[in-house]
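Kindly inspect this one:
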Amino acid sequence: MTSPTASRPSLVPTRADLADAGYLVLLFSVALVGFSTSYTGWSFLWTGLAGLGLGLLVGHVANVLRQPLITVIALTVAVFFLLGGAVVMRERAVAGFLPGPDALGGLARSSVDSWKQLLTTLPPVDSGALLIIPYILGLLCGAGGFTLARRVRVSAAPVVAPALVMIAVILLGTTTPVLPTVLGGLFAAITLGWISVRARRRRRQLRDGARRATRVMSAAALVGAIAAITVLAGPVLPGAGGDRTVLREYITPPFDLNAYASPLVGFRKYTKDANQLHDQTLFTVTGLPEGGLVRIATLDDYTGTVWGAGGGSAETVPGQPKYGFQRVGSRIPSAASGAKSTVEVEIGAAYATADDVNAWLPTPGEPTAIRFAGDTAAGHADSFRYNLATTSGIVADRLRTGDKYTVDTIVDTVEVPTDPQPFGRPALEQSAYQFVSAKTGTWAGGATDLGGKLKAVAGYLRANGAYSDGGPGETEYLPGHSVGRLTSFLNAQRPVGDDEQYAAVFALVANQLGMPARVVLGAKPGAGGVVRGEHVQVWVELHLTDGRWARVMNTEFMPDRSKKPDKVPPQQFENTEASIVPPPNTVHPPSSLTDASRVDPNVGRSASAKDGDGWEIPGYLLTILTWAGPPIALVALVCTVIIGGKALRRRRRRRLGEPATRVASGWQEVMDRARDLGTAVPVGLTRPEQATVLGDASVLRLARAADATVFGPIDPNDAAATRFWASVDEARKQLGAGVGRLRRLKAALNLSTLRVRGS
């Protein structure tokens, strides 16, 4: 008599268990190395391996205890939450490893948001909450891959798990592949070795009568696996050609620039006559090289009403991916070359209370790293977005008095060459700058080349224009830079305005001439690095053919501020230009400094921004889809794979082999259906004995027919096999007719009949 302890399943892994686990570790590690350009350091690899180990443990325990798939999924989810805090959120876990409300909530949120955050963060990202991605990939690969390895007969089946990890790493990674030849070849070699080991193991377990069909299926599986590996590794092997496809190229960073007014509209509050911020300290910089400038905001989109910050999708250098405002890690990519400096910035009360600029982060040069300090550091770091194309940043929770941060930067001053060539075509719509074309031709004089025309226009504005910030006796010179205001500026007997109008016009003229240009609001610090309103100025940047932006200071296209307009009606239009009529303006020019700061930057935007208005998905439904969509999709995918696998097995049994083999396979299909429905049918019984266990007369007749066909003196023909399979289909229906829908669903997803017998 067998003792109770002898029949207990052993959790000690077998040689086959260890072999499959080892191959999974190797393939997962090779696939995950592709994240080395996405993360800082190698903590992502150790985190992923920790998740893989936990997943392997879940798969092994469930396999030894012969638990159904639903139990494997439940255990995986439980391990994710119970141990996730210790792996990726130790700062939130109780005592650094125990699950608490804060850690559990963080895991739940990060499991949904982390994918989007990774794709909208400039790589490489810091170690932190985003490490949950390799943790999830490892956990799923370990549990799923080991379950497939120990329960599914097909030799290549478990390769699906690490292959999916490789696909995920490629899609979530960067456009720069990591050792493509080495990793692609290594992944293929390990995969083929694993399939070969599993195929030999499988052949030893099969009976002699089934060897032929099994060899055919194994060969087909091997060919399919090689094809899959070729598809996966091919794009990263030498000679593949073309750019690498990653999701971040197609994802628009979820950042709404429409929430921020154009800071250029409120420029006059920095001027002397406005008597607002002219003598107020905005911020203080320490460590900036002599003559260095500080960028506040880059404005690259003209709507007809204002110069504002667009999507920032301009390419920084040829061939590089397009970026908008994104999260950044500890390092910010930069192609600049020049002196490196570390600059500290402290925000003053005047800047913090100016609503049109306090979201913009003043930065010198081209930053390579930004570190916030103080009580607001965590909030600022979380809400900070940086645009690599415009080298400007926004802090969504807005800067406050006393905020401090450190900027590692490269001070790279790009001068306009003698013969500047543009970087492609201007990004602005032609209609945005068409109204300046008449004056451009006049002011350019006899210049024939692009550089000469730009210099001629700048020289004309500087020599013939006058400066006014709308002070006493000059209130007719309004702020703003809408089409209406700039048309008045252009058609007056002499141009009159301040930095706002001169920079806005010169940038539009440059675009009209074919040179991409943008407007920058910035400052040149005074003594001691103090930046007051008087130090704020506006300049223009030109996009040169090498991908860099060359700075044109306002002194090039604007007269000295001491050059005042004549005391005559300054806005009298010249008759020679009477044909120039400004297009209708949807917004009246601001009539005061207060109105200027409140101009809505969204008014006057192209109609295409509103074409999509209409029925929208309700917010509550979007929330439900965001949280419930991914797990539902995962469960649906797993269910589809299981049901599809069984359908493929049934099709193979019905069509492959000699008629006698197909009849025997038909009986096996009936037995598998019974076992899926929960009936315990012993393996070592004859067909009639197995039918007796089921207690169904029709199944008993089918068993006798199978024995007569397989063991009879006359070999059956195809028609006999077809008739037998018709009876098989009827028997399967009868077995399921006596149970409820829930039990039939569980039977369809039952993995017990997909396991390799004896494993």
